[in-house]
Amino acid sequence: MDPLLKLLRDDASLKPSALAAMLNMSEADVIGKIQAYEADQVVLGYRTILNEEKLGMEVVRAVIEVKITPERGGGFDRLAERIAKYSEVRSCYLMSGGYDLLVVVEGNNLRQVATFVSEKLATVQGVISTATHFILKPYKEQGVLMSREHNEERLAVSP
């Protein structure tokens, strides 16, 4: 992987001047490479990870296991892309194992997520079954620990 992409993946807030210094490149070259990656859809977007607890935000998230029937000529892709277009869906992945899709959804409250599952997701033609798991508390999000407290407690060692 290009070292520029590694740096952007780890911290997208780095300025082109800082990236240029870290990579021993000119700032213009860094900007040009970033623009080319964006145009080629290698870089699809930039996100900020928020500590919603500190902001007092009440967000309900669920991870949903979805079993689907693949479509003739489109396999899983067409149905997965249809599901991914719902505004409640934050992520959608094709999986191996006991279910076909892993769908991460978000809502303002439990009822909103439940309504999405029962009235939208479960009624999509080709969806065989769903199993919903609510996220109770995040400890790590996209590689970032949610708590920066340095608790140096050691785990008990058993003989």
Structure notes:
α2 (16-23) packs across α3. 33% of the residues lie in helices and 21% in strands. It has 159 residues and is of the alpha+beta class. β5 (140-141) and β6 (144-145) form a beta hairpin. The strands form 2 sheets. Strands 2-3-1-4 form a 4-stranded antiparallel sheet. The protein folds into 2 domains: 3-39, no CATH class; 53-137, Lrp/AsnC effector binding domain/regulation of amino acid metabolism (RAM) domain (Alpha-Beta Plaits, 2-Layer Sandwich). It has 6 helices and 6 strands, in the order ααααβαββαβββ.
Short account of what is shown:
The protein has helices spanning 3-10, 16-23, 27-39, 52-55, 77-84, 110-121; strands at 60-68, 89-94, 101-107, 127-134, 140-141, 144-145. The protein has 159 residues and is an alpha+beta fold. The chain starts with a helix and ends in a 14-residue tail after the last strand.
Based on the model shown, name its key terms.
2 domains, Alpha-Beta Plaits, 6 strands, four-stranded antiparallel beta sheet, alpha+beta
